[in-house]
């Protein structure tokens, strides 16, 4: 029996890069996969095309797996509803939602434009929230009917969302929002048999090759740490029944390295039990900063 036999998974943005690698790995391990992709350009521009999703479906089927293609826009509320319905209509169930779709429109913050903010927040934040909202409603209703639910949400944040990244203010803000969304999903959906976790992957994709060409350059020999396929085994494990006790976590994954991110939590503290005078706070804040861990450098910095 394959590791994911019986599981049905949706992977968004699965036509290329990380999403493609995730879909192929889930299919290889026995999951039935809905390969969702709009087929647009790296920045979200261009006409939609079914070709990338169709090619991934063909690869899964050629390896003996089962998959269907879907071209709905995950940042559209009704499009996401149709996506979730497509999985249930075709396979009779849904167990896993891997939210991966996104694109970049990099610019220094002082030069950023409203349209860029709107586009990035839409595809990343709403593109995670909308499909998960419809999937969660399906799982809640199944639980209320007395059905067994053992479901997974796997979100995609980024080092840019956790540490920031120069030239990527909108992207960093969106990815930080996804990390926070994951915590809320984990807290609210556990009662329905659903876990929610996120990955912060570093891998070679259309987006990262342009943003970080030196870091993402393919090595001439040896282990290719930035190959997208390195990330997908963790996604597959998080999609499995084995992961049911793990929720509300963010994993940094790159090459052969997996790290559990330690997010925002109270650090050094002082409490005088009364209102402070602003003129007193220089030394107080200085002492707190002195006792705290130094911030991690922005992602991608050498």
Total count of strands: 8
Distance between the termini: 45 Å
Q: What CATH first level would be assigned?
A: Alpha Beta
Poorly predicted residue ranges: none
Structure characteristics:
10 helices; 302 residues; alpha/beta; eight-stranded mixed β-sheet; Rossmann fold
Can you tell me about this structure?
With 302 residues, this protein is α/β, with parallel strands linked by helices. It has one domain: Rossmann fold (3-Layer(aba) Sandwich), CATH 3.40.50. The chain has an 8-stranded mixed beta sheet with strand order 3-2-1-4-5-6-7-8, sandwiched between helices. α1 runs parallel beside α2 and α3 runs parallel beside α4. The radius of gyration is 20 Å and the shape is globular. It starts with 7 loop residues before the first strand and ends in an 11-residue tail after the last helix. The model has no long low-confidence stretch (mean pLDDT 93).
What is the fold's blueprint, element by element?
Blueprint: E1 8-11, H1 17-28, E2 32-36, H2 51-62, E3 66-70, H3 77-91, E4 96-98, H4 114-144, E5 151-156, H5 159-163, H6 169-189, E6 194-202, H7 206-211, H8 213-216, H9 232-239, E7 250-254, E8 257-260, H10 281-291
Helix pairs in contact: 1-2, 1-9, 3-4, 4-6
Task: Offer a concise description of the structure.
The chain is an alpha/beta fold and 302 residues long. It has a single domain, classed as NAD(P)-binding Rossmann-like Domain (Rossmann fold, 3-Layer(aba) Sandwich). It is 41% helix and 14% strand.
